[in-house]
Write a structure and sequence with these properties.
Its cofactor is pyridoxal 5'-phosphate. GO terms for molecular function: transaminase activity. By secondary structure, the chain is α/β, with parallel strands linked by helices. It is built from 16 helices and 13 strands. The strands form four sheets. A seven-stranded mixed beta sheet has the order 2-10-9-8-7-3-4. It has a two-stranded parallel ribbon with strand order 1-12. It is globular and about 60 Å long. Bound molecules: 4'-deoxy-4'-aminopyridoxal-5'-phosphate (PMP).
Length: 394
């Protein structure tokens, strides 16, 4: 049966992690990771999460099935985080939200639903994008193309290129947009940029699919949702895949959601019924623990304040590391763009040859594209990293 099965290509980032694990140097640093590390270099377990988990454990609840679209109080809390408590869309019950298996699971059920709805629509993702976007939409049966996004010359956004490409897409094309903290570049759109994108989306009749995996890691919970809220105000129908993997440091619990903005409550009811069919035939219903913890935190005033403070500390620590790196690299060149970028990642501008040198000579691991995880820097390794980068760019 399996004699003709070929070996699939290795995931480049997992390969990097394996090489890092096997490296015997004591002062090695892994900047290739995709998770937030605290100042001590650990994946944090947030206090708000610990307290909610303790209460859940003590309550000794039975383990029945969840509804197909998950915990209702969780879905409602997701909507408020994304659209804001006073959103008229929520008052009009025009948004369908389903708990999903992380941001990835949300993208997947959204893609499967769209495939039934618009089987021939092309999907456009940013160049570059999170590496799973292309594979995920291709696996759902779509043809995937790229729109220009990152401008290597300015270390910023190629807005004109992006707008031109979006303008030439056919009506109904699906456009995947990173709502904040773009992975892998760290380059985000300003609100003025978003307004221009929204104009094109509306004029061309495109279908926006917003991916927001880092809400709260850029400028704040509400500020990072600005794009979502601008699309909501624009009166278009769109999709939002959101994730608590990073903002709650709950990576392995797979906590995310898909929200679909429709034109009316009647539409929402019909869309919800079809989305539930997609979920039912994929995994039937989502797991309980992670979403119950997030729901308990978001729906409890005290725990929520604790979480917002902890999220703020993570955000500020990342920004302090960006600042620290720029300051330490000032002698080697102008790296100010690293401070302008947002979220965990930065396109550092390092070439793949420079990344190789960092690894071979200094035990510092980064992705070949020059992507570094700023959240893996701390006071104990930042001097060494900056010295090494200064050496390889000299
Ligand atoms: N979208 C983007 C842009 C991401 O960077 C990630 C995770 N790295 C995801 C989605 C998926 O998140 P999750 O781990 O919650 O599935």
């Amino acid at each position: 049966l399996f004699s003709s099965v070929e070996l699939a290509p290795r995931d480049p980032i997992l390969g990097l992690n394996e090489a890092f694990g096997a490296d015997a140097r004591a002062d090695k640093v892994n900047l290739g990771v995709g998770v937030y590390y605290d100042a001590k270099g650990h994946v944090p377990l947030l206090r708000a999460v610990r307290e909610a988990e303790k209460a859940r454990l003590e309550a000794q609840l039975p383990r029945g099935y969840l509804p197909i679209d998950g915990i209702a109080l969780y879905d409602a809390a997701v909507q408020t985080l994304l659209f804001g408590a006073t959103s008229p869309l929520l008052a009009d019950r025009r948004v369908v939200t389903a708990q999903a298996l992380g941001g990835t699971g949300a993208l997947k059920i959204g893609a499967d639903f769209l495939k039934r709805l618009s089987p021939a629509a092309p999907v456009a993702i940013s160049n570059p994008s999170w590496e799973n976007h292309r594979a995920l939409f291709e696996n759902a049966g779509f043809t995937v193309q790229e729109y220009p996004y990152y401008d290597a010359a300015t270390h910023g956004l190629n807005l004109d290129g992006m707008l031109n490409a979006l303008s030439s897409l056919p009506a109904g094309a699906i456009v995947v947009l990173h709502a904040c903290c773009h992975n892998p570049t760290g380059v985000d759109l300003t609100e003025a940029d978003w307004a221009r994108v929204i104009d094109v989306v509306r004029a061309r009749g495109l279908v926006p699919f917003l991916d927001i995996a880092y809400q709260g890691f850029g400028d704040g919970i509400d500020a990072d949702a600005a794009a979502v809220r601008m699309f909501a105000d624009a009166g278009v129908s769109f999709f939002v895949a959101s994730s608590f993997s990073k903002s709650f440091s709950l990576y392995g619990e797979r906590v995310g959601a898909l929200s679909i903005v429709t034109a009316s409550h009647d539409e929402a009811v019909r869309v919800q019924s079809q989305l539930k069919r997609v979920i039912r035939t994929n995994y039937s219903n989502p797991p309980t623990h992670g979403a119950a913890v997030v729901s308990a935190v978001l729906n409890h005033e005290g725990l929520r304040a604790t979480w917002e403070a902890e999220l703020g500390q993570m955000r500020e620590r990342i920004r302090a590391m960006r600042r620290g790196l720029v300051e330490r690299l000032a002698r080697a060149g102008d790296f100010g763009f690293i401070e302008d970028q947002r979220g965990m990642f930065s396109y550092s501008g390092l070439s793949s040859a420079q990344v190789d040198r960092l690894r071979e000579e200094f035990g510092i691991y980064a992705v070949g594209t020059g992507r570094i995880c700023v959240a893996a820097l701390n006071d104990g390794n930042i001097d060494r990293v900056a010295d090494a980068i200064a050496t390889v760019v000299a």
